[in-house]
Design a protein that fits this description.
This protein is α/β, with parallel strands linked by helices. The chain is built from 14 helices and 13 strands. Helix 5 runs antiparallel to helix 6. The radius of gyration is 21 Å and the shape is globular.
């Protein structure tokens, strides 16, 4: 029996390590056992596109993205199209769904209009975002929200909405060895991606500006590609890590993860969950936990405003028993709510149910 043919559409390059790109790759792995999955994405460089099921459109994040999708839509008979936060590709998919008769799913990774306000976009641009939101959500056959906050914002547009959170595969974390560092010399990590767009150097800048306020026995490692570097004996740079195993081994080896966010987005979710799965304590701000369910300050994570966060780290990081309890709770939270085992079937069943609807 042939598997239903499905297209994952993402304007964001699937080859990157940004939150949306990571989510698409995880959804792809989740669905490929039950569906014949194709992916369309964007990229600047030539990629190995010999795989017939991977469609790469150049350049990266082109304004012509909607038009470039048309040949792919016409060349295939998809039964389901999932727009992975693809707000601007959706109208084209909707238009051709009337001809091709596929089901149209929108996966919302954030609240577009709210993020626009946070980015300081103009009144006209925010109104445009609100129009796009309303159009995409009202015309979706199914909406998948990554958090209950997103679901609450969008359920007034469409009653056929489900919440399926960011999730990780348990297996890479099962054999990790996490040894509690009982000395006062600690290493704190900051994880990218870092870049000039959307103030992505906000976290390194916070560290550079405030490093003298941290306990002198604390050192820092900036994980991932970071072109904005400073010379400081307490700061090191891992550079780009070639494999996920190398990455999680590093996260498991540090004594804490520091997550500083200027805006509320779902971007930090992956690195926070990865640290929780590694039993590495997470220190973050209220904006850093946007979209995270079942987290509680002081129980499985440490949350404080920027003005108070450094003092929290200085005070708590050497309290071994407190940190041990927080990381054990964090690991249980990850396994109960954010593991692949607990979430992959939700997506599969939601899509299979959708196919049965007329």
């Amino acid at each position: 029996m042939n598997k239903p043919k499905l297209l994952l559409s993402t304007w964001y390059p699937i080859f990157n390590s940004e939150g949306t790109s990571v989510r698409v790759k995880r959804v792809l792995k989740t669905l490929k056992s039950d569906f014949d999955v194709h992916v369309v994405t964007s990229a600047n460089k030539d990629r190995d596109c010999c795989k017939k099921k991977l469609h790469v459109l150049k350049p990266e994040k082109s304004v012509l993205w909607p038009l470039k999708l048309v040949p792919i839509i016409l060349d295939h008979n998809f039964e389901i199209v999932i727009c992975e936060n693809d707000w601007f590709g959706f109208p084209v998919y909707w238009l051709f769904s009337k001809i091709k008769k596929y089901k149209l799913v929108f996966e919302a990774h954030g609240v577009l209009s709210a993020e626009g306000k946070d980015w300081g976009n103009s009144f006209i641009m925010i109104k445009f975002y609100m129009f796009i939101e309303k159009f995409c959500l009202k015309h979706s056959d199914l909406i998948i929200a990554l958090s209950n906050e997103i679901k609450k914002e969008y359920e007034s547009y469409n009653s056929n909405i489900v919440m399926i959170p960011v999730f990780l595969n348990n297996k890479p974390f099962n054999n990790l060895q996490k040894n509690l560092n009982n000395s006062t010399n600690k290493t704190i990590g900051l994880v990218g991606p870092f870049g000039s767009k959307r103030n992505r150097y906000y976290a390194p800048d916070f560290l550079y500006k405030n490093i003298d306020k941290f306990d002198k026995s604390f050192n820092f490692v900036i994980v991932g590609k970071c072109e904005k570097k400073v010379k400081n004996s307490r700061i090191s740079y891992s550079g780009y890590l070639k494999s996920f195993d190398e990455y999680i081994n590093l996260i498991a080896s540090i004594d804490a993860l520091l997550v500083i966010e200027k805006r509320k987005t779902s971007g930090p979710l992956n690195k926070i969950l990865e640290a929780m799965a590694c039993c590495t304590p997470v220190f973050t701000t209220p904006k850093g936990i946007f979209g995270l369910e079942n987290v509680k300050n002081g129980e499985n994570i440490i949350v404080a405003n920027e003005s108070e966060l450094i003092n929290k780290i200085n005070t708590l990081l050497c309290e071994d028993e407190i940190i041990k309890k927080i990381t054990e709770n964090a690991k249980r939270t990850f396994e109960s709510f954010y593991s692949y085992e607990n979430n992959h079937q939700k997506i599969v069943e939601s899509l299979k149910t959708l196919l049965l609807e007329k």
